[in-house]
Design a protein that fits this description.
Radius of gyration: 22 Å
CATH architecture of the largest domain: 3-Layer(aba) Sandwich
CATH class of the largest domain: Alpha Beta
Order of helices and strands: EHEEHEEHEHHHHEHEHEEHHEE
Oligomer: single chain
Shape: globular
Strand order of the largest sheet: 6-7-8-3-9-10-12-11
Largest sheet: 8 strands, mixed
Structural class: alpha/beta
Number of strands: 12
Strand content: 15-25%
Number of domains: 2
CATH superfamily of the largest domain: P-loop containing nucleotide triphosphate hydrolases
Length: about 325
């Protein structure tokens, strides 16, 4: 609790599904919902990296938007440094947003092509009125560019985005997030659209900045190969729920949930001999789209009658939580 910076508890966000014009006017039938985020809880400590991993549509980006207060949760709470910010408004919400920033997935669309780098990086400073002079603003921008290793910073600050590479643009986006000294950065697939040769550089930079500035990260990805390099803990999401969570090495080296096993098996093998090894799990085919109880049951070879109930995320090993009926409770 001493170093805890963010505590998310029982967070939910459902989206109403409208199949046609009649549904829009609620003229018939019961409302149907997509459970984008369904009873999600986790904690992050200062200087820690939490990886949130899962396939597309599992609820990762919706969870990020809830934490940033870009959308409102249906229920649950978000506590930052011991203060509940779930229902904050006005100045209080604006002050919270100086403490948490986001780095988007696409370095080509997340920056305004009409602005110079100086304008892009200084925008948060201007919005939150954190500088009292133009020189102070420029000095902070130059320092932020130097922190992300964009040098000569004074020269790059006068460039337009089209003059930079994809990796340089993502560094600009990172500098924009860093310039107001946040305590948490939400990084949503920050390297997925970059060349493989550049990904390692960006991840190494993010890791160095975490150690230097004691920043916490929420690192959202579907790529488990990059998550192990940067993460401390990991939460595996499926169908809006966290199905397994714990220390990243423990989860990736000893996955318990069948979905986590399937994700790890999907990682490409650089060693040809490993292609001959038997995989941990294969998925069922021809499963239906809706299911009552464990949402992964319809794809899982280990499914049983009890899976018609909704499993609870419980501790199965030390610091290792899983929502699966395959394992007895930890004693």
């Amino acid at each position: 609790m001493l170093n805890e910076i963010l505590n998310v508890s029982n967070l939910r966000k459902y989206f109403h599904v409208k199949k046609g014009l009649r549904d829009s006017f609620h003229l018939h039938g019961d409302a149907q919902y997509i459970k984008a985020v369904d009873d999600v809880s986790f904690k992050i400590n200062k200087g820690e990296v939490l990886v949130i991993a899962g396939e597309s549509g599992s609820g990762k980006s919706t969870l990020a938007r809830l934490i940033l207060r870009a959308i409102e949760p249906d229920s649950g709470s978000i506590s930052f440094e011991g203060h509940d910010i779930t229902r904050k408004r006005g100045k209080e919400l604006k002050n919270f947003r100086t403490k948490i920033q986001m780095v988007q997935q696409d370095p080509y669309t997340s920056v305004d092509p009409r602005w110079r780098v100086m304008d892009i990086v200084s925008e948060p400073l201007a919005i939150h009125h954190l500088c009292f002079s133009k020189k102070e603003l420029e000095d902070k921008v130059i320092k932020a560019l130097e922190n992300v290793r964009l040098e000569p910073a004074s020269e790059i600050s006068n460039m337009f985005p089209h003059m930079l590479s994809g990796g340089q643009r993502q560094r600009v986006a990172l500098a924009r997030a860093l310039v107001i000294n946040p305590k948490i950065i939400v990084a949503d697939e920050p390297v997925s659209m970059l060349d493989i040769s550049v990904r390692a550089e960006i991840l190494q930079l993010m890791k160095a900045l975490k150690d230097k500035l004691q920043i916490s990260y929420i690192y959202i990805t579907h790529d488990l190969s990059t998550s192990r390099y940067i993460g401390d803990n990991i939460a595996i999401m499926y169908a809006g729920k966290i199905v397994e969570t714990g220390p990243i090495n423990q989860i990736l080296l000893n996955p318990l949930h069948p979905y986590t096993q399937a994700l790890i098996d999907a990682v490409s093998e650089p060693e040809p001999n490993n292609l001959q090894k038997e995989k941990i799990i294969r998925l069922k085919h021809g499963a239906s789209k809706t299911y009552v109880g464990c949402q992964f049951c319809q794809f899982c070879l280990y499914s049983m009658d009890k899976c018609s109930e909704d499993p609870i995320l419980e501790q199965k090993e030390t610091n290792h939580l899983v929502s699966c009926f395959l394992y007895p409770k930890f004693i």
